[in-house]
Amino acid sequence: MRRFQRRFPSQYRQLGSALALLGLVSSPIVFAVEVQVGRYATVRALPTQEQIQLLSTIVNVAFPASVITVGQAVEYLLQPSGYRLAPEQTAELARATLLKLPLPEPHRMLGPMPLKTALETLVGQAFRLVEDPVHRLVSFERCEPVRHWPSASAEAGSR
What we know:
The protein contains 7 helices and 7 strands. The protein is α+β, with helices and mostly antiparallel strands and 159 residues long. It has 2 domains: 2-44, no CATH class; 49-142. It has a 3-stranded mixed sheet with strand order 4-7-6, with helices on one face. Strands 1-2 form a two-stranded antiparallel sheet. It has a two-stranded antiparallel ribbon with strand order 3-5. A hairpin with a 4-residue loop joins strand 6 (127-132) and strand 7 (137-142). Helix 4 (70-78) runs antiparallel to helix 6. 13% of the residues are buried.
């Protein structure tokens, strides 16, 4: 024993003991991926993809008659998700106009589809979804600059 102590100073022995102890303590955590829930059944002890990525949760929704605008539909969809619509003062002006539009009849029933896809469906292809996962906020911004329709007077002048 004396010869062993001379070869390996006490600091190395302590480090080795600490590593061995760490291995014993952490090994059940590493191998506890499956949990037995019945005599013959086990489940994975990991969060689901929907629990990690909240906007990937599958939704199947029929909006009640009280939901009449796109903005109300967005709020209704976001309610159980933990996400909120970003404050109006932080968004572009076009978003406020979009959210005041009436909810199209084909959008009254959505799903089953991921929440992100449902939100993108509600706002259409002219807008893209912007996500802030840190504050759990969503917003929408225009994909391309707004094109103004020519006015009737401009058309009459060109003829």
